[in-house]
Amino acid sequence: MPLLYEKAANRGRFQYNMDNMARLLSRFIAALLLLAALGPAQTKSALDKPTLEAYVRHMYVMDNKVALRISDPKPSDFAGYLELTVSASLGEAHQDFPFLISKDGSKIVQGNFTFYNINQNPFKNDLDKLKTDGAPNLGTTGASVVIVEFSDFECPYCKNEAGVLRQNLLSAYPTQVHFYFKQFPLQSLHPWARAAAMTSRCVYKQNADTFWAYHDWIFDKQSDITADNLKDQILEWAKSQKGIDPAQLASCMDSKATEAEVDKDIADGHAVKVDSTPTLFINGRRVTSAVDWPTLSSIIDYEIEYQKTAKNAGEDCGCTVKLDLPGLTQQAAPPGSPLKKK
After folding, report:
1. Which residues have a Cβ under 8 Å from the Cβ of 15 and sit 6 or more positions away?
2. Residue 135 vs residues 204, 264, 267, 333, 336: alpha-carbon distances, Å
């Protein structure tokens, strides 16, 4: 009898365990069915523009006064990532924020990422975008070092840099450097800079050489000029300049005839991410803020020596191969020709 009782008890415990497992299994299956009905978990994607905008506003503490525009994503040089730009603007102020976004939209890489090709100039991306056609220039066409400056006539740092360049550049490098001047007036900070830039183009169109007299004069008089007296001061200066017709200059100023030219310079600056003045590009190498002559000359000396063998920047870059025939006339590149690059 005790054995029969023990067997019965074992059967009871076995049946209880089986029932318990069945209940657990049914609950697990019910949970899976519920999850399937709800669909996959909802996750945010940086490829969704409203989502990315909210994220970037939080990152940089940007309220709705700052207008944001997000470019469409495009292939990048980094496997598994797309690139896009978030452009922020407030009045005349503008800044671009580059990002890499993983293809699944889950990861963001922030910053001025740069992809280098060991077989090319490390500054090729900017060299490709720097445009010098039609820009006032000094120096030697075909020089191994090309300097492009983006400047603002009302900027005190630009005034300092202008003095450094004008006093030293051509005397130290009479044949090795070609210098180009581009307008980049910071209108949100400097109320008369844009008008001064447009006037400089008016002067340049009348007499290219006199542009540099205007350049030196307006920087020298910077502290005396205001938005209200700018035109009167310029026209008074023009009376003493040979090759400048004050009446024609006044007409050019009043009609804003050169506004498109200044806008083009500004657009060219944005293309290479200029956001402060002065900004110089020395064979594509970016140099921001005013720098002293010893620093500038050391960079120029380095580039002159480097380009003797590299020949991947400047205007004498050896980027084309032509037959050197006695009967073939070689044409020099015209002033303001685009930069060459490998």
Report:
1. none
2. 9, 11, 14, 14, 6
| pLDDT per residue rounded down to tens, the chain (342 residues) | 454 444 444 455 545 455 666 565 566 566 556 556 655 556 889 999 999 999 999 988 999 999 999 999 999 888 899 999 999 988 877 788 999 999 999 999 987 677 788 888 999 989 999 999 999 999 999 999 999 999 999 999 999 999 999 999 999 999 999 999 999 999 889 999 999 999 999 999 999 999 999 999 999 999 999 999 999 999 999 999 998 999 999 999 999 999 999 999 999 999 999 989 999 999 999 999 889 999 999 999 999 999 998 888 888 654 433 333 344 344 333 333 334 343
Question: Are 78 and 209 part of one and the same domain?
Answer: no
d(CA 51, CA 278): 36
- Domain assignment present for 333: no
Same domain for 183 and 285, yes or no, is yes
Q: pTM for this one?
A: 0.72
State CA 167 to chain mean position distance: 29
- Residue 74: which domain range? 49-110
> How far apart (Å, rounded) are the C-alpha atoms in residues 175 and 172?
9
Could you tell me how many residues make up the chain?
342
Structure tokens at 329: 């006339």
Cα torsion for 210, 230, 180, 120, to the nearest 10°? -170
Final residue of a domain: which of 86, 110, 134?
A: 110
CA separation for the pair 276, 83 (Å, rounded): 24
The contacts of residue 206 (CB under 8 Å, 6+ apart) are 243, 244, 245, 248, 249
DSSP state of 224: G
Q: Is residue 155 part of a domain?
A: yes
Residues 131 and 269 in one domain: yes
